[in-house]
Amino acid sequence: MEKSHILPIHKRLDVAFTRGKGVYIYDDKNKEYLDFGAGIAVNSLGHCHPKLVKTIKAQASKLWHVSNCYHINELEELASLLTKNTFADYAFFCNSGAEAVECAIKMIRKYFYDKKEKKFEIITFKGSFHGRTLATISASNNEKFLEGFEPRLEGFKSAIFNDIKSVKKLINKHTAAILVEPIQGEGGIIPADREFMKELRQLADENGLLLALDEVQSGAGRTGYFYAYEYYGIKPDILASAKGIGGGFPVGICLSTANAASGMVVGTHGTTYGGNPLAMKVTQTVVEKLLEKGFLGKVKKNGNYFISQLNILKKEFPQIIKEVRGIGLMIGVELHEKYNNVRFVELLKDYGLLGIPASKNSVRLIPPLIVTNKDIKKAINILRSTLMKQQEQI
């Protein structure tokens, strides 16, 4: 095989996919796989959804890209749709989750700069993941991602997730905001406690801080709510969104209240590709589908069913499965220490099911939101076969 000229930063499984339809994807040997990785929670409507294909074809024949120097009708339409259905007054469109979080960080700093307050520190959480830029890996404070890229950018302090006392200890005269994932994705699918999220909101209000949520992975219907903050019964000041909101098309969004965005005036931020007509029409199609009557209800129902079936597997294989966690269709299965999650994902792939490794020796099961009970039953059968194989090998 000819030497690859791709920068060797990814460890790739020995499989190449050539086509997909719905929750299934096919490799270059035409082997079928049930895709419960969904491009890491990206393909929210599965592969080649008919409405998305139709939208892309229609818009691609009209207009792909224009500069943000001009009015973009598709941009205005999507911003209006999103703000109408969320807490937000404004939306900024970019191309990825990391960019959306970067926008949130800049918005926080500019807010207090304009108020002439020397507040710039952001409290984040151990186990978090906010992206791969220097600012976002600094915010995450994960040694695995920081190694070789030091020094860490200043302005971030790490608290313990689900521990409100650890947050309170970090607040000082320079504290500007709290940045949190409602469900830690890369961290192993760890949901925040409802009370913890409410306490964060209260703490921010009492101390004049902004509350920013990273819903890059938990948003766009993944939990059975349009955004997970609804599950927690709170409203943030700022929210970063990406992944599933574009259904596979690269898009990132930073949503905010008018107050939080008060410092973001002409010239303070920008983007070349963000807000292009093609991305906006695709995202609008995804959002309209997610907001269809009954769609999110099905996500909740199917998520509850999937978790219940996984807990049955946990009872069958207690020596392998340590814990099942999740909300909606954002689910993690943590394995006991003597079983390796990366190896387990490779075995699943061999049996025709795709999952994604995560921290805490966990396997992420994050299927397209269009998944059915029939698909879930098939996944459970594959998981059972894989667990039996693992049991034989130890």
Can you offer a commentary on this structure?
The chain is an alpha/beta fold and 394 residues long. It has helices at residues 38-41, 50-60, 73-84, 97-114, 134-140, 143-146, 164-170, 194-207, 229-232, 277-290, 295-316, 341-351, 373-393; strands at residues 17-21, 24-27, 32-35, 90-94, 121-125, 156-159, 175-180, 183-184, 190-191, 210-214, 238-241, 252-256, 321-327, 330-335, 353-354, 356-358, 362-365. A seven-stranded mixed beta sheet has the order 4-12-11-10-7-5-6, sandwiched between helices. Strands 1-2-3-15 form a four-stranded mixed beta sheet. A four-stranded antiparallel beta sheet has the order 13-14-17-16, with helices on one face. Strand 8 and strand 9 form a beta hairpin. Helix 12 crosses helix 13 (373-393). The longest helix has 22 residues, at 295-316. It is globular and about 65 Å long. The relative contact order is 0.16. The mean pLDDT is 96.
Detail the topology: elements first, then pairings:
Layout (H helix, E strand, L loop, with lengths): L16 E5 L2 E4 L4 E4 L2 H4 L8 H11 L12 H12 L5 E5 L2 H18 L6 E5 L8 H7 L2 H4 L9 E4 L4 H7 L4 E6 L2 E2 L5 E2 L2 H14 L2 E5 L14 H4 L5 E4 L10 E5 L20 H14 L4 H22 L4 E7 L2 E6 L5 H11 L1 E2 L1 E3 L3 E4 L7 H21 L1
Parallel strand pairs: 3-15, 5-6, 5-7, 7-10, 10-11
Antiparallel strand pairs: 1-2, 2-3, 4-12, 8-9, 11-12, 13-14, 14-17, 16-17
Helix pairs in contact: 2-10, 3-10, 11-13, 12-13
